[in-house]
Amino acid sequence: MNLRLARTSCIECPIRHRAVCAECDDTELAVLEGIKSYVTVPKGGRIAEAGESLDHLSSVVSGCATVSKTLADGRRQMVGLLLPSDFIGRPGRATLSFDIEAATDVTLCRFQRRAFEAIIRSSPNVARRLLTMTLDELDVARDWQVLLGRLTARERVIHFLLSLVRREATETGAAHRSGPVRLELPLSREMIADYLGLTIETTSRQFTALRKDGLIETPTARTIVVPDLLNLMPEAMDEDGGPIA
Amino acid sequence: MNLRLARTSCIECPIRHRAVCAECDDTELAVLEGIKSYVTVPKGGRIAEAGESLDHLSSVVSGCATVSKTLADGRRQMVGLLLPSDFIGRPGRATLSFDIEAATDVTLCRFQRRAFEAIIRSSPNVARRLLTMTLDELDVARDWQVLLGRLTARERVIHFLLSLVRREATETGAAHRSGPVRLELPLSREMIADYLGLTIETTSRQFTALRKDGLIETPTARTIVVPDLLNLMPEAMDEDGGPIA
DNA sequence: CGGAAAGTTGAATGAAGTCAACGAGAGTGG
DNA sequence: CCACTCTCGTTGACTTCATTCAACTTTCCG
């Protein structure tokens, strides 16, 4: 798998049109092709640690990673969820402020920091794409702030589920706004709790409550079936109260 | 005030070296000079509303503005605090996802969207600066997520005060890590509560508690005196438990 | 001076956290 | 193949911190 990917050209890359290279022309792509390398981090592995110096920037090709901060007394809050096409690292600054860990096996497309920074300077298509992606991440972070600051436990869990549905929809291109959906959760209950700013117990109780209310089914702990999205969405308490954009 | 600013050249601009134009050379600055205009929004005024289309991008020159979201049932969460040099708007997308309001009288340096977007394309110094600023904002938003998700009411208020101290320090260049500090709060208790994801009452009680503990003095509701920062910082519960960078 | 808005304080309520026990699967090794 | 263990997830009982509802005080402006 790792080896096969190592020979994969950017043209056939599954994230070619969504990652930081999305807007590259053939020339730029060839340059990136020349400096890229693939790495696979096993589930549970550390991709980066807060404060440490990173000499590679990378894109997530497959799998799921978490961005989080742990306080001195062990309290932990997730602040980012990285899925295929998401970018890791900060051009222009070597040190990261957050921990990044592999929630599943994660394959990364890596670029040496110096080389990539040079590309950003010479290739406006990469710089522009990175700005767009960062602005999108900022919007996500701010919506997340609203969730953490003002939503109830139940609303948070519903939001989490809907955001997974939405991300999956944008990846596959399918836009279901109603009907049954099956979700494979990439995160454990503990990670979901860290995502939502709740405890494991509260998170678990909310899943149970949603199941008892018939809004979800849970064939296994990691599998969620939503019989009808339309039943879940009204409770999401988005600013307009309506379905998700 | 407004008129005087309208004649101010970028060279003398108070935010010249911190705003989106910080890295511009003289040529680029001259282009910006040509398309900029100043606007002053009175305290309480709306600068932009979620969902509406913006045809100007701007920098905050003076004053303080808030970025927030209001849910259908009135719950409100602040997700950004804009101070001098901060940028408003999103190149490449006309609609904003959040409300922006003037917490004090705010003076903006505005650029027509289309013209500014052209400059971003032609002037890498502006694009690069904007990327850096956006990445910084993302870090702020993520630290804010930690505050909202995991800190107690007392810790949140302390963090809020320390972040104001820090921002003031970076503006004036003075780096006090101990000793007395005087703060003029740009926000009402209600806005602080929206910032911290708390109610007005809880926020007020925490100020009272900090006063009773001798950590702060409150000559007026809007003025906070911190006799010694070193007493406040240990309670901030940063990841390392130590003083603020 | 008077009225509204902003801020503080108190008492009661409630949602989520804590502590603790229990149950279900997954993997290991006899 | 089954027993064993270990991790993960669920459930229950109780506690706690922040919210809610309400009254009161102070400050700000017209």
From TrEMBL, chains A, B:
Keyword DNA-binding: yes
Residue ranges constituting the Cyclic nucleotide-binding domain according to the UniProt record: 36-137
Pfam families (alphabetical): cNMP_binding, HTH_Crp_2
SUPFAM superfamilies documented for this protein: cAMP-binding domain-like, Winged helix' DNA-binding domain
UniProt keyword DNA-binding present: yes
Alphabetized UniProt keyword annotations: DNA-binding, Transcription, Transcription regulation
Highest taxon of source: Bacteria
Domain HTH crp-type: 151-230
Span of the signal peptide: none
This protein's name: Helix-turn-helix domain-containing protein
Species, as recorded: Paracoccus albicereus
Phylogenetic lineage: Bacteria, Pseudomonadati, Pseudomonadota, Alphaproteobacteria, Rhodobacterales
